[in-house]
Amino acid sequence: MSAVQETVDRVRRIDVDQYRYGFETLIESDKAPKGLSEDTVRFISAKKNEPAWMLEWRLEAYRRWLTMTEPKWARVHYPKIDYQDLYYYSAPKKKEIGSLDEVDPEILKTYEKLGIPLREVEMLEGVVRPEGERRIAVDAVFDSVSVATTFQKELKQAGVIFMPISEAIREHPELVKKYLGTVVPTSDNYFATLNSAVFSDGSFVYVPPGVRCPMELSTYFRINERNTGQFERTLIIADKGAYVSYLEGCTAPQRDENQLHAAVVELVTLDDAEIKYSTVQNWYPGNSEGKGGIYNFVTKRGDCRGDNSKISWTQVETGSAITWKYPSCILRGDNSRGEFYSIAISNGHQQVDSGTKMIHLGKNTTSRIISKGIAAGVSQNTYRGLVTAHRKATGARNFTACDSLLIGDKCGAHTVPYIEAKNSSALFEHEATTSKISEDVLFYCVQRGLSQEEAVGLVVNGFVKDVLQQLPMEFAVEAQKLISISLEGSVG
Amino acid sequence: MNVVLAKTDTGRALSDSFALARARLPGAGKVADLRRQAFDAYERAGLPHRRIEDWKYTDLRVLMREVLPLAAAPDRAALTRADAALKLHAIKSVRRLVLVDGVFAPKLSDTADLENGLGIRTLREVLEGGDAALQAQLFTPDNSDSMVALNSAMVTDGLVIEVADGAVLTQPLHIVHIASGGTPAAMFTRSLLRLGKAAGATLVESYIATEGAKAYQVHDSLVISIGDDARLHHVRLIEDGREAFNISSAVVTLGAHAHFNTFGMTSGASVSRYQAVVVFAGKGSRVETNGVNLLNGRQHADTTLFLDHAVPNCASREIFRAVVDDRGHSVFQGRIIVRPGAQKTDAKMMTRALLLSDEAEADNKPELEIFADDVTCGHGATTGALDESLLFYLRARGLSETEAQALLIQAFVGEAIESIVNDDLRELAIAAAQRWLAARG
Amino acid sequence: MPLLEVRNLQVRVEEREILHGLSLVVNKGEVHAIMGPNGSGKSTLSHVIAGKPGYEVTGGEILFEGEDLLAMSPEERSAKGVFLAFQYPVEIPGVTTMTFLRTALNAQRKARGQTEFLVPDFLRKVRKVADSLNIPMDMLKRGVNVGFSGGEKKRNEILQMALFEPSLCILDEMDSGLDIDALRVAADGVNALRSPDRAVVVITHYQRLLNYIVPDFVHVMSKGRVVKSGGKELALELEASGYARFDDAA
Ligand SMILES: Nc1ncnc2c1ncn2[C@@H]1O[C@H](COP(=O)(O)OP(=O)(O)OP(=O)(O)O)[C@@H](O)[C@H]1O
Ligand SMILES: [Mg+2]
């Protein structure tokens, strides 16, 4: 069956609002009292059995946050968020999960429905797999806590630490202390500061010097509870000469009210290290009238701290009512390299303001930005990107290509690049185009027998191909399907 | 008393200064009200700073710090000095209209034998006795930009030029702004050019100073309306003194099937900003806006263009080139908006910066905001140094390093200059670029 | 029943009438050639038959196997066996030719209620057709027509025709841009498709192509009408005397 056909079939199977992950899991949960105060922060810290220094760190962030105001510069509009009307902590009731068998079966079912295998046995034995197919270690985060991390033992043998950050704070305080908040300081921005105060879980990865992580690491985020903010925190460190590829996926149930997601991701690469970070973001985007959906305010930043190090961000953004997200690279080490590959699709009433920052500080640093924005429905899709070379960043190089595609005449696609060169040896090239799918191309396709919808799907997949190729195989296939689903109903 | 930042201790002094100057400002009644409103708007916002997105790269609170007091009307000595400066910047076969220290100088201007369909008055005349419609048009620029607001409040003089329906002027109009270089002062001018249906004109604006002029500030604005089927060719040359500030704004509105070709070059002034809004109000029109910044020393020049594609079937082309030496700082912000329903818009923008020294800086912000789908829009931006392999090639053919550089720089800015339609004006721009290159040595 | 019947077709583009009552009958098993000066409306006719948007049919009708073709969507026409080899084939960046061929072929088969091709069968079929047309498989891994030379684009059109096996093949200037060897190969491809169930309409400016694909009928179009029809000798006449004498007729 062709990919396009498969997509179309799939689309037919899903409900009107086109969101196939919209179901809810009915389990009992343990929540912090509604609202945000120092007590909430203390409650979360206590729940996690955190050392005093961590509580202090959180409280400092909380106090800082009180003095800050929500940023207004992005091209997104939403009603004022009442931060006192949210829950900041929610955990499935069953405590002290020792092994998978102790995880609430409802949660396991949820992940199965989502297609995320948590049982290693199933993953290994369930199906006959083609030779050499990679396995993936998964950390599953359900509302505020990590419920399962797979392949721990095997990773341990390689010396790789992959665990919920709440555990890492207890078990590897020296590493956490050394790196947490060094890429995204607690005072960085409104949402990052809020996250610093109330983050409940997330993943921690440390790959020791010279180690190539033996498998893909992955975290799967799921917001389930009503009125619950999700504030996860991810910290990934690739020590000298290390390599890791990390995947992140997210979904949420279909709800009428908006849910807040304010994550922080920090990446650090030391000399000669490399981190490849891929995201397929498919939070609930709201219904066809623009009701409900996730507010996704995320701070992601990588620090190429060592010479010859590399950080590569790849994102496929199809979900969320509002996306505010700029995965960035600080190119500090000489010869370091940053990459940003992005597909951002907006349909219905979605609003996307996303892009990247490439900050060239070291000598001979290079960066590459490939951004593909697709707007349909009545959505607004903005690329916002900064490329800057400082005085001492001699030999800095950047290439940026951002292309936007408009489907229908009710949506908007916008490009806002900031290009700042502060030394003459920097060489920057930037190009941007905006267009719709050519009528001639569509006609060519339908003359050869494709339906309008199939033709659009085919052309769009061609349009985003450069970025899809950057994703690990398993994700690329999933992403391709997701793209067609997201655009369902956009041609009339 | 100097006009300083609003919302500071000197806030009162600022109002006093406006009150003081008011007696000298033309226009009463409605005009005075409009000035008052504009001044209130300025006072609320104060000098623009980097937190104002449009002024991100030109922070006047750092660069300018204060607004100088209103310049005195030019005396005989000032006019004599201005006359000498004019001789150095004369352009052949144009109709010259001169503003000295922000005040129209009839003796230095050429207002005799106007072509059929051409009307020229001073702003002062129009504000003091003109018709209400013209006055209202003069105050169309948007006071939400505080430098526009300040200009609206303080404007003393300028030219109001009207070209009747069907009149096609053969002689270019040349508005010269001269600073006579007495005491440090600010001049506030505003001009209006109204082209009727199927009219045609060429407008040149020069900003110059007398020999050895010290710090002064130019606050200028221009309102242009181009009627259906009309065309305007426009050239601006900023050759202000090296200590000068030049903050200029333009609002251009085009009717249907109109054509606007504009070119701006900045090689003078210490700090300059040219902000232009071009609005397509009728279908089937075309705009080419091109510009060059040639900067060295510690010069700061900002060109901010906003093209508003509000109606279908219009085309725009922007080409911008910056050549930055020493510690110069060039800023280009180009925003293109395609409004809902403005189908078949064809908008392209290309901005390129050439950095000649390690301390030079170029900031580019090309922006697209698109709300219609059947469009072809795009922009490109590059920043870099001169191509080493080309330099080498030329030197291998016997050129000195400076000659080779000069040749490549000329070629680099050439594409923007080539777009000037009028041959004499194009030569003028090429000559100005060559002067800059020659001064570089 | 004729395979294609165009009756008194009138077509407008952007307020301007391009075809002023054109008629044409094509039976199964026949090969027709349409010739005529630039701008006479040949491509317009082919586009309207294929259902390209942007043309307004203000009069007349088109029947395909007796059915109203104008009432069908372009993809329905394609599934019914109407194939147009474009004068100017478009480029589709990022979509490999292989993916495109498979998607299109299966879409047509599905619409006809046939089973879809499995990948190995499909590959075998493509390889065979590509070989017969001297098209290297490497070319099929590139984006559809992206960076193809003019001649390569034309060959890609013929490849698709051979693969889809349509019942009505309309070839709009397939000879332009082809070198002499490629022309022969492409013509062989067309001839191989000739069968009693199929018809071919070739639009061309040059008699030379008709030496390779010998037509049963030749039509001369001028200013939006068929002004003369005849046998293959009409093409030779045209080659000798040009279109000038038809202008009055139109
Ligand atoms: N979209 C359009 N808008 C305006 N005019 C059109 C359009 N399409 C076709 N025409 C006009 O219709 C006429 C017929 O064009 P057509 O392409 O059918 O000619 P043709 O016979 O195929 O010519 P050629 O031999 O050059 O391929 C021409 O005058 C052409 O300019
Ligand atoms: Mg044709």
Please, could you describe this protein's structure?
The complex is a heterotrimer of chains A (492), B (441) and C (250). Chain A is 24% helix and 34% strand. Chain A is α/β, with parallel strands linked by helices and 492 residues long. In chain A, the strands form three sheets. In chain A, strands 5, 6, 8, 10, 11, 13, 15, 16, 18, 20 and 22 form an eleven-stranded mixed β-sheet that branches. Chain A has a ten-stranded mixed β-sheet with strand order 4-3-7-9-12-14-17-19-21-23. In chain A, strands 1-2 form a two-stranded antiparallel ribbon. In chain A, a hairpin with a 2-residue loop joins strand 3 and strand 4. In chain B, strands 2-1-5-7-9-11-13-15-17-19 form a ten-stranded mixed β-sheet. Chain B has one domain (25-387). By secondary structure, chain B is α/β, with parallel strands linked by helices. The two termini of chain B are 42 Å apart. Chain B is globular, with a radius of gyration of 21 Å. Chain C is globular, with a radius of gyration of 18 Å. Chain C has a six-stranded mixed β-sheet with strand order 6-9-10-3-11-12, sandwiched between helices. In chain C, strands 2-1-4-5 form a four-stranded antiparallel β-sheet, with helices on one face. In chain C, strands 7-8 form a two-stranded antiparallel sheet. Chain C has 250 residues and is of the alpha/beta class. Chain C has helices spanning 42-50, 74-80, 97-111, 119-132, 150-164, 180-193, 207-212, 233-241, and strands at residues 4-13, 16-26, 31-35, 56-64, 67-68, 82-85, 92-96, 143-144, 168-172, 199-203, 217-222, 225-230. In chain C, helix 2 (74-80) crosses helix 3 (97-111). The A-B interface holds A 73, 391, 394, 404, 406-436 and B 53, 340-341, 343, 353, 355-385. The complex binds adenosine-5'-triphosphate and magnesium ion. Magnesium ion (MG) binds next to helix 1 of chain C.
| Biggest beta sheet summary of chain A | 11 strands, mixed
Looking at the chains present, what oligomeric state does this protein adopt?
A: heterotrimer
Q: Total domains of chain B, how many? A: 1
Number of strands of chain A: 23
Q: Percent of residues of chain B in helical segments?
A: 25-40%
**Strand portion of chain B:** 35-45%
Structural class of chain B: alpha/beta
Radius of gyration of chain B: 21 Å
Mean pLDDT of chain A: 81
Low-confidence stretches of chain B: 1-12
Alpha-beta classification of chain A: alpha/beta
Identify the overall geometry of chain B: globular
Helix content of chain A: 10-25%
